[in-house]
Structure formats: C-alpha cells, structure tokens
Amino acid sequence: MLETKRLYLRECVEEDLERFYEIYSDETVSRYNKNLSSDRDEELEIMRAYKRMYEFYGYGMWTVCLKQNDMVIGRAGLENYEMDGENALQLGYVIDKNFRKKGYAYEICSAICEYAQQYIYVDKILCIIHRENKASIKLAEKLRFILVNQTENMYMLKLEI
C-alpha cells in the first residue's frame, strides 16, 4: 500500500487483532484514543466490515509494520470527518509504546499526508487531539498542521494541502 524507509502500511487483517489489543492495552493509548471493543468477536466483525472502507474510498486506518521483520507496531491512516457541514479527512495514528521516540509516527504520518495530496486530492487534513496529548500535538505541528479550533479538552489542527 505505502512504504517509507523503515515502514510499510497494509490493510488490517484478522491476524492483526491480538496485536492491536496488546497495543491498545497501554494506558497512554487508551487515554487518548477510542478503545477497541471488549468483545473480541465484535471487534473482528468491525474489522471485517471495515474492508469496504478501503475498497470504496481508497483509504482508511492501515496496519503499520516494520520492514526489517514485518512486525506490527501500530495503526495509522485517514478517516472521514465532518467539520462545519463539510467533509474532511482526519489523520490518526497509534504506535506501540515500545516503538515510540524513534521517529516512526512522523515517518508514516508524513507519507500518509503525501499520499492524500497525490492520490485523494483533498485540500485539507485534520487532526483532532486531546489537549493533554503533548506528543501528538508536537507531531502535528512538526507535520505543519496549524491550530484552528480548541475546546476545553480538544485541539483541532489543520494541514492545508
């Protein structure tokens, strides 16, 4: 699907589910992201249904893997979001705690933004980030997102393409 120097993205497959539960079990992930269903069968059905997202839109949340050993280290991608009555794309990512602070999130999110510009033809991408999630805010700013709105708990940042 998409490759960088050290990583590649691919569609999520059923075999990824247990690894996702490991990644999402980290308190820092669950604090800032929507959790997986506590019912693994339900989550598996969600994953199966999600395949239509890839087919219909050509994007979605993908599995992030290391090139060197194919290890699943997270998820990243684009999802639909409505802002002020207009459709937009939202960039999201989750990286396993053992693989943070190595530049992987920046590497894969940069590639996703380039992909959006070249193949999806959007003029903006959003990031919705909990205001206490300083690492994600810093990453969004490094990716050249700018703050456009804030609430008591959330920041909305936008990248103009």
Q: How would you characterize this protein structure?
A:
- The chain has 161 residues and is α+β, with helices and mostly antiparallel strands.
- The protein has one domain: Aminopeptidase, CATH 3.40.630.30.
- It is 36% helix and 33% strand.
- The chain contains 5 helices and 8 strands, in the order ββαααβββαβαββ.
- The protein has helices spanning 17-24, 27-32, 40-57, 104-120, 134-142, and strands at residues 2-3, 7-10, 61-66, 72-83, 86-95, 124-130, 146-150, 154-160.
- An 8-stranded mixed beta sheet has the order 1-2-3-4-5-6-8-7, sandwiched between helices.
- A hairpin with a 2-residue loop joins strand 4 and strand 5.
- It is globular.
- The mean pLDDT is 92.
Explain the layout of strands and helices:
Blueprint lengths: L1 E2 L3 E4 L6 H8 L2 H6 L7 H18 L3 E6 L5 E12 L2 E10 L8 H17 L3 E7 L3 H9 L3 E5 L3 E7 L1
Parallel strand pairs: 5-6
Antiparallel strand pairs: 1-2, 2-3, 3-4, 4-5, 6-8, 7-8
Q: Give the proportion of residues in helices.
A: 25-40%
Query: What fold name goes in the CATH topology slot?
Result: Aminopeptidase
User: What is the alpha-carbon Rg in Å?
Assistant: 15 Å
SSE run:
EEHHHEEEHEHEE
Annotated CATH homologous superfamily: Gcn5-related N-acetyltransferase (GNAT)
H/I helix tally:
5
What is the second-level CATH architecture? 3-Layer(aba) Sandwich
Q: How far apart are the first and last residues' alpha carbons, in Å?
A: 21 Å
